[in-house]
Write a structure and sequence with these properties.
- This protein has a five-stranded mixed β-sheet.
- β3, α3 and β4 form a beta-alpha-beta unit.
- The longest helix has 16 residues.
- By secondary structure, the protein is of the alpha/beta class.
- It has a single domain, classed as Rossmann fold (3-Layer(aba) Sandwich), CATH 3.40.50.
Length: 119
């Protein structure tokens, strides 16, 4: 059976109904929390971290799609590895609404539009 691996900081249970509906076509959703990527990590550290996650994801078999959103160098390393293994990776496409509050801070809300494949 197909599975959707959600490798983000946003658990499936917190997604909008529109995003959950769009995700259903990929199969059962399994959350894997996105790692805390050390800002001092070098490219070798990022590669090793991506390899650990590649092995974890590979335990679910080949019939998976991976939703990857987060720190860009880690995402690039992992997505490159997954694509080489023939595993489809997707991102959430959203519309960003920003409201400037009276104190000058910002309130940001994202509206899910669709999933888009990394290629």
């Amino acid at each position: 059976m197909s599975k959707l691996i959600n490798l983000t900081n946003h658990p499936y249970s917190e997604w909008s109904e529109e995003q959950r509906e769009a995700a259903r076509k990929y199969g059962e959703c399994i959350d894997i929390p996105f790692p805390a990527v050390d800002s001092d990590a070098d490219s070798d550290d990022i590669s090793r971290l991506a390899e650990r996650y590649l092995h974890q994801i590979s335990e679910y078999g080949q019939d998976v799609t991976v939703h990857v959103m987060g720190e860009q160098t880690f995402c690039f390393a992992l997505i490159s590895m997954l694509i080489k293994k023939g595993i489809t990776c997707i991102a959430s496409a959203t519309t960003r609404d920003v409201t400037i509050l009276p104190d000058g801070s910002r309130k940001v809300h994202f509206h899910f539009s669709r999933f888009r494949e990394y290629k």
